[in-house]
Amino acid sequence: MTRADALVILLACGLVASTYAWLWSPGAPASQVRVISGNEEVARLPLNEARQLEISGPAGITVVEIADGAARCAASPGSQGICQSAGWLRRAGDMAVSLPNRVIIEVLGDESEFDSMNY
Known about the structure:
The protein has about 120 residues and is α+β, with helices and mostly antiparallel strands. It has two helices and seven strands. The chain has helices at about 5-25, 80-85, and strands at about 30-35, 40-45, 50-55, 60-65, 70-75, 95-100, 105-110. Strand 6 (about 95-100) and strand 7 form a beta hairpin. The radius of gyration is 20 Å and the shape is elongated. The chain starts with a helix and ends in a 10-residue tail after the last strand.
């Protein structure tokens, strides 16, 4: 291996590391939460006000909790608890979905974080 080969390898590693840091850096801070039930937006609320929402759906009631600049699915009628396991949604672009109840909880901000959906 020559010095030129080592330099090319070093530059390639640096390019990969800088691209990774640029694309997967935290997104813009979240400012709102949007709750969708079925095909319509039920609520769009600021994240800086603590409150609880009860959203009725075909399977029962989904409870959405907003506190400390984050939102979460506190309770859902789904048997597997996938909505609750999403945890607290803090960054723009984070979302939790209750499929049996057709409820989507999405955190909004000025920019969303880069993910595979950007393709």
